[in-house]
Structure formats: structure tokens, C-alpha cells
Amino acid sequence: MLNIRFRDKTTAWPGFVDLFSNLVIILIFLLIVFIFLWTTTSVFNKNTGARKVAQLEQLQQAQAEQIEQMTVDKQEAEQLLIAARDALLSQESQIMTQQESQENLANAYESKVVELTREREELIRQVETLNEQLKTLSEQGAADRQDILDQANTELNELDAKIAELENTLARAEENARKKEVEYTEMSNRLNKALAEKVAELNALGQYQSEFYKQIKTAIGNNSSVHADGDRFIIQSDILFGSGSYKVSADGKSQLKILANVIKDMESKIPSDVDWIIRIDGHTDNKPVIPGTTAYWNNMQLSLLRAASVADELIKNGVSRQRLIPTGFGDMYPISNGKDAQSLQKNRRIELQLTNK
To answer: Contact, 256 vs 314, CB < 8 A?
Structure first.
């Protein structure tokens, strides 16, 4: 039996070795398969990984664009929210204003109702008071009527006193009016007397005017440039001054010396109580002053300078300064409206007038 077991045991080992060999071969095969699969998988994974990376980059780019769009949408949403908030606040403000206005109207209405109620109550009290007074008056009867009559008489007497006072005031006013009328009459008489004296003075002066102009005409002789015109004596400026000048020419000085002798003679003849003067009025034509003229600016100034030159020349020849009044009128009062040389010459003139102050 022992031999049998030993033999059986000895014969089993090669089978075990075959099994182990087979296992090793299987392991090697599996290892080769594993290595192949691992290599293949690695290569496959590299290609797949590149594609995955590209896909991830695209996905990342898409997500970045989506995030950017979401940011823009967020900003727009925030702006819309701000606008909505402002609109809501504005509406809330308007609602509050309307509520305040409604509350004010309600308060005003309530105040008016209270005021009308008070007025109504006051009217009711007044009606009640009047009813009570009417009742009292009815009860008092004749005694009260007598009191009312006495009061009316008192008021009538006061009115009569006021009328009497007004009558006294009217009487005083009439008296003052009479005094004023007397004063007016006296003042009118004084004025009429002064006017009469002035008229008499003018009449007396008128006599001397005629003699004055007559003596001048006689002294000048037959000179067409010198003539009398009503209460004036006219001398053409051309015989006294050069064109555009206010300096008296030599011929002009000779003529003015003759006039000075006549005026001095009149000074000795006119009574001292006659207050007289000789107005020396300068007039020009309407031609404008030549630009650049420095001695004067316009015709008004030229006419005054010429009148003053005539007065100065008469004073040099012995005429009293207080009897001469030079004035200038420029081209304001022409005696001829023509535009020809003769009309313009007539307007250039010196007028002498013996008159009162």
C-alpha cells in the first residue's frame, strides 16, 4: 500500500508542473496582452486627449463668450432695474403728492364744513338774539319809542350844530374870497399900470427907433447892403467879413465906425429913465461848415462870433458895453428860402435892433 501511494504521489508532480507551466504561459500571454492594450490605450488616449483639449478650449471659449454675454445682460438688467427703481420712486413721489393733495383737500373741506357750521350756529344765535330784542321791544312799548324819539331829536340837534358850523366856515371862506378878490384887483391894477408904463416906454422908444434907423440910413448913404426892415436894421455880412471869417474887414470897420457914432449920439438923446439896448443878431446861410475848420464847429457858433466881433468893434469906437447884446442864430431864421447865390447872400447878415431890456 505504501508503494502504491508513493507511486501515485510521484506520478502527480509532472501534472502539477504542466499546470504551473500553463499558468506561466497564460500569465505571460496576459502580460503581453496587457502591455499591448496599455500601449494601444496610451496612443489612443493621446489622440483623444488632444481632441478633448481642443473641445475643452472651444467649450472654454464658448463659456467665456457666454460669460461675457451674461455680463452685458447683467449690466443691461442692472440699468433696467435702476430705471425701474427710478420710475417706481417717481410714481411713489407722485402718489405721495397726490395723497398729500387729497389730504389737503380733505382738510380744507373739513375746515370749510367746520367754518360753515360755526357760521350757521352764529346766525342761529343772532336770530335768537333778534327775536329776544324784538320781544323786549314789544314789551317795552311806548317808553322805548319815546327814548328812540329823544335820541332822534338829539341827533337832529347835533346835525343842526354841524350845519351852523358849516355855514360859519362858508361865511369865512366867502370873506377870504372877497379879500382875495380885492388883492387880485389891486394886483391887476398894479400890473395894468406897469403894462401901461411899459407900453409908454415902448412908444417912447419907438420914436427913438425911427430916428435911430433914419440917422443910420443917412450916415450909411445909398448902400444896398444896408437897409431897414420894420424894427430892425440889416447889414449884409459880406461887407463886414470875408467868406467863412468872423474877423471884421477894413471896409467893415469903416461901416461900424459910422454906426458907432450914430449909437453914441442916440445915447445922449434917449432919456436915462428909458432902459434900452441894441441887440446884435448874427445869421448865416445853410451851407455846412468846411470840415477841418478849427475856429468854430458850426454855423451857430460862427454867427455868434460875428455878432460878438461887431459888438467889440462898436465898443472900440466908444459905444457903452452895457447897451450891446450880441446873439447868434446860425441858419435857423432865413429871410429867403432860395438856394441860389443871391438868396444865400441875403441870409448872411447882421441885424441891429433898438429895443428895451
So the answer is: yes
* CB distance 302 to 284 below 8 Å: yes
Q: Which three cell numbers stand for residue 275?
A: 432902459
Output the CA–CA distances (angstroms, integers) from residue 107 to 94, 102, 119, 121, in the order listed.
19, 8, 18, 21
Per-residue model confidence as pLDDT tens digits over 194-222: 554 555 555 555 666 667 777 776 766 66
Query: What span, in angstroms and rounded, lies between the C-alpha atoms of 296 and 303?
Result: 10
Residue 157 lies in a domain: no
Please state, in angstroms and rounded to a whole number, the distance separating the CA atoms of residues 180 and 118: 63
Domain that holds residue 343: 202-356
Do 225 and 88 belong to one domain? no
Residue 25 pLDDT greater than 60, yes or no: yes
Q: pLDDT confidence of 266, banded at 50, 70, 90? A: confident
Q: What is the DSSP letter of 323?
A: G
Cβ atoms of 329 and 300 within 8 Å: the answer is yes
Task: Tell me if 200 sits within 8 A of 242, measured CB to CB.
Answer: no
